[in-house]
Amino acid sequence: MAVIRNASKVAMAGDPRRRIPRTDSVLADPRVVVAAEGADRAVAKAAVVAAQERAREGRIAPEEVVAAAVSALAVGPRRVINATGVLVHTNLGRAPLSPAAVEAMEAAAGCTDVEFDLVAGERARRGRTVMAALAAAVPEAQDVHVVNNNAAALVLAATALAAGREIVISRGEMVEIGDGFRLPDLLESTGARLREVGTTNRTNARDYADAVGDDTGFVLKVHPSNFRVEGFTAAASVAELRALPVPVVVDVGSGLLGPEPLLPEEPDVRTVLRSGAALVTASGDKLLGGPQAGLILGRADLVHRLRRHPLARALRVDKLTLAALEATLRSEPPVRLALHADIEDLEHRARRLADRLTRGSPDGHGDLRGGGVECGVVSSVSVVGGGGAPGRELASVALALPVRLALPLRLGEPAVVGRVVGGRLLLDLRSVPPHQDDELARAALACT
Ligand SMILES: *Cc1c(COP(=O)(O)O)cnc(C)c1O
Fold first, then answer.
1. What spacing in Å lies between the alpha carbon of 136 and ligand 1's midpoint?
2. CATH code 3.90.1150.180 region(s) in the chain
3. I want to staple 294 with a disulfide (CB 3.0 to 4.6 A). Which of 4, 9, 37, 150 is the partner?
4. Which residues in this protein are found as N6-(pyridoxal phosphate)lysine (predicted)?
5. What CA–CA distance (Å, rounded) separates 110 from 258?
6. pLDDT (tens digit per residue) in 55-70
């Protein structure tokens, strides 16, 4: 035994692994002590042991163990490369912001003129430049208002226009938006009563007309943005309902401001307003590609009532959201670029990346044969996601990697999240902005 131990000591002489610091000394390092503040001792120890393990495997230098442990103990959100092929992935924070939006948020992070007129030197209407940008993008809207999210927009409309009264809604549009939240429950929580009309698959204009009366606050149409009903179906169009003596409120969900040729079945704000909707609500962080927000657009008198309702103050968006939203409206956000990405460009990126990964050359230069990873290029199918266009498949291209890389990629910096299909890890490039290709290659090679 002793002989073997000595032999291995000899073999390790000059081995960098001998310089890996001991667990207790790493735990006592002041930087680790600070990072582990408030954390369980077991959690801190696990982070240190994992960092030592990475050093033992040669993936980091022994001198980097402390930094790796500190990084593992870091609190706050982690950066993720979305290679799932789901363009608007709710669990990954929905729409990634455009560089312009990030820049605008940075500018607004300190003190800013969100509610101040620098020319006049006095108070001004909050977020007026965003409202102007929205009004310019949707000339059909007489007025616009922005709240925390689309759910908040619906709550505000229901409270201000129908509390104690009825909202007429089709049985086919009683939607669960996700994580167990159901729009009917949300609407009833405001004190409005739901008057259900029609059936799950068929509701016509007559059903609405028969239900509307003195007690009706408004008619609500909700776009089924996360499911599809096929077969023997019928739904009343906004144009058919516009003649009703009550406002027609339409929840389009996705946040498309104008028609999107690639998603012909997805409703958009401008078209819906033109067909006669009194109010439209939409999310800011789905196909609009901006920050979480709820947009309310339409008739001036109704938007005014919503904006002046006491509840509006509780649903107000902060200056960072306003800054990001305005910049989103003035730029081409990543979600739209991903939606429009050309399949040949995706193939080209995939082949280049596969070549770099196979050769073990993260930056494409130099040939580090032997350090690469087995990587193929396969066709794939992307989807918009919970953000809209259910059932619409978008042709895409993916890198196919050994499935054993799935976990280390998720734990990397940045984390990379793909999909495991048929025993392989697929990294779908449609949901990855091209500027992240280098990082993706480095992350994948760091796991080999
Ligand atoms: C997503 C969605 C909502 C909820 O919007 P949030 O911005 O997440 O609050 C409501 N209605 C429809 C039709 C949706 O698609």
1. 23
2. 80-95+337-446
3. 150
4. 286
5. 33
6. 999 877 898 888 788 8
Residue nearest to atom 15 of ligand 1 (CA): 253
Nearest CA to ligand 1 atom 12: 253
Rounded distance between C-alpha atoms, residue 151 and residue 302, angstroms: 18
Residue 341 has pLDDT above 60, yes or no: yes
Which candidate, 246, 174, 239, places its Cα nearest to that of 205? 239
Q: Which residue, judged by its Cα, is nearest atom 2 of ligand 1?
A: 253
Range 80-95+337-446: architecture per CATH = Alpha-Beta Complex (3.90)
Atom of ligand 1 nearest to the CA of 225: 15
Q: How far is the CA of 269 from the centre of ligand 1 (A)?
A: 14
Average of pLDDT values for 112-130? 96
CATH class of 99-331: alpha beta
| Residue with the two structure tokens 């993260």 | 362
Q: What phi and psi, each to the nearest 5 degrees, are found at residue 14?
A: 80, -5
Q: Which atom of ligand 1 is nearest to the CA of 283?
A: 7
Where does CATH 3.40.640.10 sit in the chain? 99-331
d(CA 81, CA 126): 34
CA of 394 to the centre of ligand 1 (A): 22
Q: How far apart are CA 293 and CA 401, in angstroms?
A: 37
Take atom 1 of ligand 1 and give the residue whose Cα is closest: 253
Q: Rounded CA gap, 208 and 231, in Å?
A: 22
- What pLDDT, in 10s, does the model give residues 260-294? 999 999 999 999 999 999 999 999 999 999 999 99
Rounded (5°) CA angle 48-50-56:
105
Within 6 Å (CB) of ligand 1, which residues are found? Answer: 149-151, 177, 222-223, 225, 251, 253, 283, 294
User: Do the beta carbons of residue 428 and residue 81 sit within 8 Å?
Assistant: no
Tens-digit pLDDT profile for residues 18-30: 999 999 999 999 8
